[in-house]
Amino acid sequence: MNENQIVVRHESEGGKTPTTGDESQDVSTITKTIKGRGPSKGVKVAKPMFLEYNVYNVPDGQWSHEYGKQVGSCATRININVPLYPKVDEQTKKGFWEETKLMFHITDDSNHSREKYFHSCVAKRFSCFKSKLVRRWITMKENKPKSQTNKMPWDVYNHITEDDWKTFVKHYFLP
């Protein structure tokens, strides 16, 4: 039996599984496609989201999960050939923050700690994303999900082009 099949046992009329005779009649297989994780589809919520912050000025509450998706979405929109997040142009960073503020109705605080926290999260997520690309497609130290086994990064992540990938790989092997 392959791993995409599920065995279902049907009970006989007495409520018990038959113990004698040919049990192959009572077993049927259902082929089910198991879908692996892929890139996030981003934040898709129709009602207004009001992000709450805890006493440490860290996002908390009902919309914190959606906020995390937004952070990830911002991180994956950065070109993979940018070496580090601080090298991203200020216009792009400001655009990410403004988009997030509008989406989650975030008010500015006096010392900009919410904005700083947002940018540190995006920087961390961007770094982790690039590391995942290296581990899965260059060094092969991490197995790809089954849904991505025979695919290249530009097939999985729509924002990566084949040319960007070739440049990324070339820069990885530079001393």
Order of helices and strands: EEEEHHHHH
Q: Count the helices. How many? A: 5
Q: What is the end-to-end distance?
A: 48 Å
Shape descriptor reads globular
Number of domains: 2
Mean pLDDT: 82
**Radius of gyration from CA coordinates:** 24 Å
- Helical content class: 25-40%
The portion of residues forming beta strands comes to: 5-15%
Largest sheet: 2 strands, antiparallel
Q: Major sheet: order of its strands?
A: 1-2
Uncertain runs are: 1-15, 22-28
Please state the structural category: mainly alpha
How many β-strand stretches? Answer: 4
Query: How would you describe the oligomerization state of the chains in this entry?
Result: single chain
How would you summarize what this structure contains?
The protein is 39% helix and 8% strand.
Structure description:
By secondary structure, the protein is mainly alpha-helical. It folds into two domains: 1-34, no CATH class; 52-172, no CATH class. Helices cover 39% and strands 8% of the residues. The chain has five helices and four strands. Strands 1-2 form a two-stranded antiparallel sheet. It has a two-stranded antiparallel ribbon with strand order 3-4. A hairpin with a 5-residue loop joins strand 3 (52-53) and strand 4. Helix 1 (64-76) crosses helix 3. The longest helix has 26 residues, at 113-138. It is globular and about 45 Å long. The model is unreliable at 1-15 and 22-28 (pLDDT under 50).
